[in-house]
Amino acid sequence: MLAMSGIPNWKTIKTDGAIRYIELLLLVDMSTYIYQLNIRIIVVDVVKVIGYNLTLEQIGKYRKQSLTKMAKHDALMLVSRSFDGGIAYVGGICGPNAIAITGFYPQSSMEYSSVIFHELAHLLGVPHDIKTECSCSYELLGNCLKIDGYDNDCSAQALVDNLPWHSCIQSPPEELPATVLPICGNGVLEPSEECDCGPERFCSSLVCDASACRRTISNMQLVYILSFILFSATVLLFFCVKFIANRRDRVFSNNVIKADTKNIWQVLKNYINKNLMKN
């Protein structure tokens, strides 16, 4: 299913288990790419700019001049219809060079997400000539842990290995700005969402509808269910304790009866022997 939809299967990738949160300006949903890598994307704002053939340097100057007016973010990504492909500063995230430019491909959402993810990998410190190793499962041979546009089959593993080095993405934001754009399926609870368990194919929650980020049962229903489970467990524990106590008493009674029977036979034996000696 993953291969047919064009989404890579990176189940063999080795992560440190920590989840990173990247706050971005100007981005589209690509959670299906990065969710497997324990990365969560939060779109903090979408800003319109007027310009033609803008360069990274020009966007960098604009960002520096307008930084105090912008929502707090870890990286800025310019989406331009006139731009072909993408470009970004390698390792620029968390710093003044946390900037990328990508083309706009409304006719192909998967290609669009692929290009954005490629540039995000650059921002996270993954160059094209990266040298790294990884383990691949048999069914993934040929693609392995490769990011589209990279030659190295282990480029996704290289990205994950770089994550601990970027301080600004190590913890979730303390507060989301009012301009945040809620994205159902990014694994982050945002305004207007009741829950968010990530993309549908990765959601294992029994109480959250991943397609709409709505609870399948209300809080009151959840309280009733938990109360019933707790009550049932308490009743079961009570009867188990009572059963064990009754069984112990029965065993004790049997031992007493056996002991009394043994004493009776001993008294009878002594009496018979005594009378026989007299005769």
Automatic annotation (TrEMBL):
It holds the Pfam family Reprolysin. The active site is at E119. The keyword Phosphoprotein does not apply. This is Peptidase M12B domain-containing protein. Zn(2+) binds at H118, H122, H128. The chain crosses the membrane at residues 222-245. Keywords: Membrane, Metal-binding, Transmembrane, Transmembrane helix, Zinc. InterPro entries: Disintegrin_dom_sf, MetalloPept_cat_dom_sf, Peptidase_M12B. PROSITE patterns: ADAM_MEPRO. GO terms for biological process: membrane protein ectodomain proteolysis. SUPFAM superfamilies: Metalloproteases ('zincins'), catalytic domain. Residues 55-218 form the Peptidase M12B domain. GO terms for molecular function: metal ion binding; metalloendopeptidase activity.
